[in-house]
Amino acid sequence: MSFLSPSLAKFIASLGYKAIACGNDTTLSVPLAVDAGLGQLGRFGALITPEFGPRVRLCKVITDLPLVPTDPIDFGVTEFCDICQKCAEYCPAQAILYGKRTHKSRIASTNPGLLKWPLDGEKCLRFWYMNGAKTEKGMYHIDCYQCINVCPFNKIPGIGHDLVRWFVRKKIGAIDRLLLLGDDIFYHPLHETGLHKKSEYR
Model-level pTM greater than 0.70? Predict the structure, then answer.
């Protein structure tokens, strides 16, 4: 992210246009990515793409370069996330909303007004620090990624998983529930390891 965004901005600037490289700052990356058609918003607040699922890191360049806009896409993520609650169940901080989407904010730092599953970012970040490790330079390496690990869209490409994604695009609730059952059967042992253990408090 710290390499790609400035490199692209420098290239655009060399063409004579304004270009501002951004990482996690300046604007919200996920809404821009959704509007640009890169993927859809998942229950845990991250972008889910058709190619890589939730395994993406977003950066951006704000520019006045004339571009052809792309449209948002829909490949069944919202309907699937509506049924699936694995990220919420396995979240150690219990920062992910169960149940249906809402227009309401959960905490002061959550924007109201958009129908979504608002994340409790403060709980999430507190757990990151609690789960972190101190580096040799005295800094804290913070992370978690439980939600990404257990997400059914986090699967490698292949005939079986490609077929599952095809069914998800059809948005048939009964099929989605059957696919979730299959995910439980084939991936439950992995999810129940120490790394991916289901949260014991809700």
Answer: yes
Burial of 63 (0-12, 13-18, 19+ CB in 10 A): middle
Residues 80 and 101: their CA atoms lie apart, in Å, by 13
For the chain, which residues make up each domain, given as ranges?
4-63, 77-191
Nearest to 85 by CA among 131, 129, 133, 117: 117
Question: CA end-to-end span of the chain, whole Å?
Answer: 34
Phi/psi zone of residue 52: left (φ > 0), alpha (ψ -120 to 50 degrees), beta?
Answer: alpha
| pLDDT per residue as tens digits for the range 82-125 | 999 999 999 999 999 999 999 998 898 888 888 999 999 999 98
Instruction: Return the exposure string of 119-144: e unless at least 16 CB atoms fall within 10 Å of the residue's CB, then b.
Output: bbeebbeebbeebeeeeeeeeeeeeb
What is the pLDDT averaged over residues 143-160?
89
Check if the beta carbon of residue 41 is closer than 8 Å to that of residue 56.
no
DSSP string, 58-117: --EEEE-----------SSHHHHHHH--HHHHH-TT--SPPSS-BSS-SSTTSPPSS-B-
Q: What angle do CA 130, 147, 98 make, to 5 degrees?
A: 100
